[in-house]
Design a protein that fits this description.
The protein has 8 helices and 11 strands. By secondary structure, the protein is α/β, with parallel strands linked by helices.
Length: 290
Amino acid sequence: MFGTNEIIGKKYFKDAPTDSLFVTSMFFTLQGEGPYAGMPALFIRLAKCNLDCSFCDTYFDDGDWLTFDQLENNMHAAVNDFWSKQGKTTPAWANNGIDHPGVVLVMTGGEPLLQDNISAFMSRQLPRFKAVQVESNGIPETTVPAGVTLVCSPKCMEKNGVATKYLAPSKTIMDRADCLKFVMSSDADSPYNNIPEWAHEWKRQNPHKEIYCSPMNVYNDFPQRIKLLRAEKGTITMAERSTVDEVISFWEPGLLNLNANQANHEYTGRYCVEHGLKLNLQMHLYASLA
């Protein structure tokens, strides 16, 4: 676990400012997973979560309240910065006025559906992006507008840092989900070793929809830059959270437990073949992108 993952419920956001979201980071990258894998994407990571998964590889404890207008200004800047840092001009497919016609907007967390204001924000962005996706563990119930791709990624209940059993998403989220995404482990004693039966039943009832299976990445340590910056400064800015926190490379020497990762990747691949599911690799890590 990279952060402290303090468990937060929807009550935390009951007094949220109008037309605002509590944001951890924002960055332009490659979508590494799910239905838009391999496509250019703008990520907005919202702060806080209702779970504390021990294997979580993201920071989302800290955040800043941003109005929708501020968010949009930062979104345009994040896309432009990607090219300006290379001394290039941003192409029109990526940033054309207020539109980003070739870019997927990904709302993630933490747990983004803890914040009810996300519904209005996503509706506002739908005509401006190639697609809008939100990823949720499926426990909080917040309206996901028509046209937004809902990726439901169920997780397990944990006791003393050990996963015990899957938490089934709400019926509302399951009925609305466009696909499911599961993290998988080769550890036969872990509930992450299998996809729960209710997910297989969902697939049988929705044969046109996908279940994606991701091998669990096992880290030996935090990425070095994250450790050094937090040791030096303690609390870091949104700009730093959007760069240092997010850029993790599969190729950083010693970062990943390669033996455990090989076992998880091979096991998950076999599981997908046996059950007719779709293998889902975090390709952004292989490209050393956020």
